[in-house]
Design a protein that fits this description.
- By secondary structure, this protein is of the alpha/beta class.
- It has a single domain (3-135), classed as CBS-domain.
- It has helices at residues 20-30, 49-54, 67-70, 85-94, 114-135; strands at 13-14, 34-39, 42-48, 72-73, 78-79, 98-102, 108-113.
- The chain has a four-stranded mixed beta sheet with strand order 1-2-3-4.
- A hairpin with a 5-residue loop joins strand 6 and strand 7 (108-113).
Length: 141
């Protein structure tokens, strides 16, 4: 399995010049914790619900702050053909939970998260457990 099949391919996106108040409505309506900021279909930033909440301390009128003022620029990305272990390695290297997935042209094709990785590992361990139980009838967890 490649990273491109790990997480959702429908990614919630925003533009740099969107207002933060509009973005927080999107977070709520789409029930997501992060939005990828794109420019010509390429990820140029990420903004999380935490980023939006912490913006209160840096802006007198947080509702009119732009996404660009609050986003994390130049987000770490993962290539769609990478192995899922790349997510684990990227989490360690960049200390973040979410990664835009890109193709050879650098265009956004999905998003992979720590939650996706944990769910995939859980499914794989379940498969291993099924094999162990099938091959070892006397085994009882």
């Amino acid at each position: 399995m490649s990273v491109g099949k790990l997480g959702p391919q429908d990614v919630v996106t925003a533009n740099r010049d969107d207002e933060l108040s509009e973005l927080t409505r999107t977070l709520e309506e789409e029930n997501v914790g992060a939005v990828v900021v794109t420019d010509d279909d390429e990820p140029v930033g990420m903004i999380t619900d935490r980023d939006a909440a912490l913006a209160i301390h840096d802006h007198d009128d947080v509702t009119s702050a732009s996404v660009e003022e609050v986003m994390t620029s130049d987000p770490a990305t993962i290539h769609e053909d990478d192995d899922p272990i790349a997510v684990s390695e990227a989490i360690e290297e960049h200390n973040v939970r979410r990664f835009p997935i890109v193709d050879d042209d650098g265009e956004l094709t999905g998003i992979a998260t720590l939650d996706d990785l944990v769910a995939t590992i859980g499914e794989e361990l379940d498969n291993v457990a099924d094999t162990i139980e099938a091959q070892s009838p006397d085994y009882s967890p």
